[in-house]
Structures
1.
Amino acid sequence: MNKTYFIEQTTAPEVPIILSVPHCGTAFPHELKNDFKKELTHAPDDTDWFVHKLYDFAPALGITMIHANYSRWVIDLNRDPESKPLYNDGRIITALCPTTTFFGAPIYNDERKEVEQQEVNRRVQQYYKPYHSKLAELIEEKKEKFGKVLLWDCHSIRQHVPTIYKEKFPDLILGNADGTSASEEIINITLNSLQQGDYSVFHNHPFKGGYITRNFGKPAHQVHALQLEMSKTMYMDDQEQRYSEARANKMRDLLKAVLTKLIIALK
């Protein structure tokens, strides 16, 4: 199977919001699977575990969701396709086709330092472009139908990744490329709504949105894009291994409330 994404169709009247979950994939293409360390591929680290499950209420709100099939170790769908760095503050940034985990552990059997450019190019064509092309198609369809669209990019991360950020991450981080990927109104509604919950909320720090947010967000053309990053312990257990129904349900209540307010604002 060469399916780079899944689409969750709406089960209620459609609204102009798309959810993207680019890092929840855990599959490996047949031709690559044996290149990776076998003991790592059954549960690839750096996966945004269960995020598509956390947001599975979205279709009942009329929201279309697209989520990845393949692991970000195959290719990172939220990186610049030409490998331009998203940040220049000294943090560790894994490559478009990573060779290590966030903690620097090798993921390939041969412990290669980089993936050859020819292979990177192949993976861009085979696994990266289909996801981004479908996302662009969904955005255009929504814009044509409603005149505007909001892309909400869904992410999670370990509560502490010192190679990226010395402190523990806050509960929630809203990113909008320093206010350039969405309108001020959309940003303010989202930020104020998130702050109504019992969570710590940061804005554009230490994440301001990855390539998906920055590339697709064009508020002057009525295409708004936001990224929501969250610590995994907000919906998983303290070991960040199992889905916690109690924690997830509390978070889902907040996410539903925020997205419902945005649906109203986009009418």
2.
Amino acid sequence: MTQTLKQRLANKEALVGTFVKTPSMMLAEVLSRTNMDLVCLDAEHSPFDRKDIDANIFAYRAGNMPVLVRVPSAAPSQLLNALDCGATGVVVPHVDSLAKAVDIAKVCQYGDGGRGYAGSTRAANYAGNTVAENLQHAANNTVVIAQIEDLAAFDEIEEIAAVDGIDCLFIGMMDLTVALGETSPRAPAVVELAERVCGAAKKTGKAVGIFVPSADDVSFWVERGVRLFLMSSDHSFIKQGANSLVEDVSKHF
């Protein structure tokens, strides 16, 4: 039986995916046919509206590709929309306190004061599942990733990591870089904070993920417990492919 993304995170398996910046259902269909373990729609920094999120999730699900949505904010309506559309899970930016982590974990699951229930959504198989089946599926499959990218988060980083319902901590290297007044994610001060996130995740048994600028950085972070790598983007793939084509053809002139 194929393991879910939630199980693979819990088992600390190596996972490689990318951020998707283009709200294109056709591009989603293409990427779903690659060997990546997952993708993350970047609705925080790219123009994904509700219909775009819905259409792209449809395409990735059709291709059996786990799909996360990095939501614009931790607002319950943003989390609910992504999950009702059938996202495998959410990446929530700027989780900078224990209180926010607790709220996010609650809102992403059904229960008193939690995720609003609708049995007619894609996530609920368009009324094809019973209430009990929907509750169980959400509990067993919904992935909640807290993005750590603010200096304030480090006042409670171990408490945030320990929150039940948070599956993974994702290190926002670039925001930490800017917050520290640095210009490179390889700056010692940035690396030190990222290592603190890894330590908190290890202590609480949580998975940890990261974005790094190059595959050359991967080994360093694997040694520190990182197993989820969301790297590059569809934009980068297009630019790299185009530039590579020009370089290869130009050799013959």
3.
Amino acid sequence: MLIRRENLGDVEAVRGVVAAAFAPHQEARHPGRPQVPPVEVVLLDELRTDPGWLPELSLVAPAPDGGIAGHVLCTRAHVGTVPVVGLGPLSVHPAHQRRGVGSALVHAALGAAEALGEPLVGLLGDPAYYRRFGFEPASAHGVAAPDPSWGEFFQVRVFGRSAPRGPFAYAEPFSRVDGG
């Protein structure tokens, strides 16, 4: 499966993929309010204008029909004062789910982050899914989640022998955009 960097012509298609991928979650958060865009779309829009935006780590999986099947974004984060990467959101259009698109995007993002010399990638997600990519509980590496209640769902993938230790901080829009 071909994974490539997002380009300017992909912006609206990526927004559509993110909206479709997170629509079921949005309905659960805001029953009967389909006009409210998923918080992940708002987050994506805010991240695009933030200094933490890393265009080389905004990746898409093209669909066979010429559209976009999936998207993953990594932005600048920090562990203490050490620059690291935060992964997310990861979005796969419902028509392309369960076909390896998400896995291919995560593998590509991790490969690119490692090639760029990043020390680690952090994320909030399902341990059962992300374990296959080498993610482990952040606390096992001395990395504190932005919210202690995230527990085992906050994970890191470390490149090299050791990770920086301390509190993890995502790019600023993550603290502004409300997921509730």
4.
Amino acid sequence: MVKRKNPPAKGTWAPPGGSVKLGETCFDAVKREVLEETGINVSPIRTMTHVDAIYKDGDSAIRYHYVILYIEAKYISGTPVPGDDAEDAGWFTLEELSNMKVEKETIRILTNSFHLL
């Protein structure tokens, strides 16, 4: 998990991620983004689910709209260190994450996808 350094979710813990570059596959983007944000090498396995993340401003106008793919990946190598647009990075249990600033939807997806609770 990484602690976001930039809006819209600044200060929130989330799985590493970012934009897909033109011509890049989603799986290639996962490998690149995880490495950039955490220093960890992964091998993507499958798409678990997707989420529409819509952030509104104080006037209820849509400020950001992201389509987020949650992709399961196999750990290959590396130690979590923050990089790129992350304030911090680390491994956490679901119990630990439930006491941190994490979107409820993220906890739900991780719990349902891995049947850990």
